[in-house]
Prior knowledge:
Blueprint: H1 8-16, E1 32-34, E2 37-39, H2 41-47, E3 49-50, E4 57-64, E5 70-76
Antiparallel strand pairs: 1-2, 3-4, 4-5
Amino acid sequence: MDTWFTRAPLIEEIHRKGLFVIGLVKDLKQRYRYADGLASLTPLHSICRKTQKRGDILGSVYAQLPCGIPLKIEFVSREFNR
Length: 82
């Protein structure tokens, strides 16, 4: 896979090797299991637990890939030019 973003097949392959993944995801067609349904990143962001801390982390939510691999998705600010 030649991409800057983490996708489900890459996460599954790394998980099979017994390793953890930290990656950047983009709101594409990928869906995540949350509360007995499937959702993309946009709805997950609207229902995520907002953090009270200052910094780049806006909020987080626990979800799963459709294959059952558990995830913690953290939403961060996109301020690159500080």
